Amino acid sequence: MEFEARNSTEAALHHYKAGLGVFTEKMPGLAGHFNSFTEECFKEGVLSKKEKQLIALGISLYSQDEYCIIYHTKGCLDEGCSENEILEAVGVTAAFGGGAAISQAVTLVQESIQELNQLKQ
């Protein structure tokens, strides 16, 4: 019986899980350790599972990892995040990403321009 996705998100989740299954068959020790580590990281602790999923979503967005973006958006919803909570986390990620760009622009880029122009003289 072949899987038929109802939308692109479901198709991506299925593709990821299928790939993970094949990888786990080929590398059971590594996959098992990785899965155990990941499960431990996402357990309820001082931070809630909900907070951990929001953090993971932000990191996924920042690193532009499409599978993780989908996976952790689902994780956020599964942990009871509202759309506004998710979008606020997206905003924080955008501020951080933009902050990294501007911090490099106001330091490294400006210093490089000055130093490279000095070499021309």
Provide a descriptive summary of the structure in words:
- The model has no long low-confidence stretch (mean pLDDT 93).
- Helix 1 (8-26) crosses helix 2 and helix 3 (49-63) runs parallel beside helix 5.
- This protein has a single domain, classed as Up-down Bundle (AhpD-like), CATH 1.20.1290.10.
- The longest helix is centred in the last third of the chain and has 38 residues, at 83-120.
- By secondary structure, the protein is mainly α.
- The chain has helices at 8-26, 28-41, 49-63, 66-78, 83-120.
- The protein is built from five helices and no strands.
- It is elongated.
- This is Carboxymuconolactone decarboxylase family protein.
- It comes from Bacillus seohaeanensis.
- Pfam families: CMD.
- InterPro entries: AhpD-like, AhpD_core, CMD-like.
- Residues 28-111 form the Carboxymuconolactone decarboxylase-like domain.
Put simply, the count of helices is 5
- Please state the average pLDDT score: 93
Shape: elongated
Topology order in helix (H) and strand (E) letters: HHHHH
User: What is the CATH topology classification name?
Assistant: AhpD-like
How do the helices and strands line up, and which of them pair or pack?
Elements (H helix, E strand, L loop, with lengths): L7 H19 L1 H14 L7 H15 L2 H13 L4 H38 L1
Helix pairs in contact: 1-2, 3-4, 3-5
